[in-house]
């Protein structure tokens, strides 16, 4: 896939549907890829299991990561992304319903770029997704693929 890709890591089908609908309405990114648990997210990034054969160098422009995920939780996904030189600078936005201060702190401690609480009503949720896309896909500058550095 070429263009701007958002990876949504979300196990709640209602939240997934809201995010996809809001994404389609904003028309900023060229593709949204959805994975439904933490293990599938890791498989997507590292080209294993169901994503075997996927070019592991092909990364999304931004990851919207829920924390409360089956198999591998969002904090562990974040830890693993930051531990790998290929993905350590990848923008990750924690998009969660958690209001727990320890989740907020743990997310930033593990390298989240942003922490956003999911609004409960669709108009606010759609606006939140639109703003996230506008910032992370249009305004934000990311390092080139070769910019792995130290």
Structural notes for this entry:
- The structure is a single chain.
- The protein has helices spanning 13-26, 38-46, 74-83, 101-109, 122-139; strands at 5-9, 31-35, 62-65, 92-96, 114-117.
- The chain is of the alpha/beta class and 150 residues long.
- It has one domain (5-138): Rossmann fold (3-Layer(aba) Sandwich), CATH 3.40.50.2300.
- Strands 2-1-3-4-5 form a five-stranded parallel beta sheet, with helices on both faces.
- Strand 1 (5-9), helix 1 (13-26) and strand 2 (31-35) form a beta-alpha-beta unit.
- Helix 1 (13-26) crosses helix 5 and helix 2 (38-46) packs parallel to helix 3 (74-83).
- The radius of gyration is 14 Å and the shape is globular.
What order do the helices and strands come in, and which of them pair?
Layout: E1 5-9, H1 13-26, E2 31-35, H2 38-46, E3 62-65, H3 74-83, E4 92-96, H4 101-109, E5 114-117, H5 122-139
Parallel strand pairs: 1-2, 1-3, 3-4, 4-5
Helix pairs in contact: 1-5, 2-3
InterPro entries: CheY-like_superfamily (IPR011006), Sig_transdc_resp-reg_receiver (IPR001789), TCS_response_regulator (IPR052893)
Protein name: Response regulator
Domain Response regulatory: 5-133
């Amino acid at each position: 896939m070429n263009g701007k890709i958002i990876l949504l890591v979300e196990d709640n089908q209602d939240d997934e549907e809201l995010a996809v609908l809001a994404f389609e309405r904003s028309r900023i990114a060229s593709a949204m890829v959805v994975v439904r648990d933490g293990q599938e997210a890791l498989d997507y990034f590292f080209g294993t299991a169901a994503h075997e054969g996927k070019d592991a160098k092909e990364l999304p422009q931004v990851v919207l990561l829920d924390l409360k995920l089956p198999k591998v939780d969002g904090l562990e996904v974040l830890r693993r992304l930051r531990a790998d030189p290929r993905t350590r600078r990848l923008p990750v936005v924690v998009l969660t319903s958690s209001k727990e201060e320890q989740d907020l702190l743990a997310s930033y401690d593990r390298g989240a770029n942003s922490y956003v609480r999911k609004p409960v009503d669709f108009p606010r949720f759609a606006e939140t997704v639109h703003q996230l896309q506008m910032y992370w896909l249009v305004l934000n500058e990311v390092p080139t693929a070769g910019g792995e550095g130290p």
